Amino acid sequence: MEAIEKENLTTKYSHKNTLMPRFAYSLDLLDMILTQLDKKRTELKSQNLVLYDHAGDTFDLDFTKLVELEGEVYFAIESLKQIQNRMHSISGIHGITTNLPSAISIIRIISSRLFRYFPNYSHNLCELSSILGSIVMDSATITEAKFDFGESNRESQRILDEAKLIVDSKINKQYPNLDLAKAELA
Question: Mean pLDDT throughout 40-46?
Answer without folding.
Answer: 96
